[in-house]
Amino acid sequence: MTDIAYRNPVFSRPANAAIDMEIDHPDFGWIPFTASPDDPEEHGRELYAAALPSAAPYVAPPPAPYSLDKMVLWLRLSEEEANAVDAAMTLQSARLRGIWNTAQSVQSDSEFFGTLLAFLTAVIGGARANQVLAP
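Given the sequence above, the corresponding structure tokens read:
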């Protein structure tokens, strides 16, 4: 078994395929290191096995922001859904209607996107709202 000290292990890939950590290198001090169960080097496999019980869970990176053209949104709605969205929009605040009416696209990382998602969820349901607003 390796005698390399390590700290801060965290699973870095889905299905626990690798663990990122810092190792105490004899010449360079604490440096980043990625260990995996199929590492070509024995010390990599040993570090993976040693860190396995204490590794923090894998957290998938957030999706990249995207832009959705409003015409695409309308094309994704059925005729019935489009009528329901149009009717419900008339009941929204002037500010929300103004943003909706002047925007050509919707940015997924904007404050308005969250508001639009909540609005569509109320009108057509959560699953459909997510489908309509998908990249």
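Helices lie at 42-51, 70-76, 79-89, 94-102, 111-124, 126-132. Try to locate this feature in the token string yourself.
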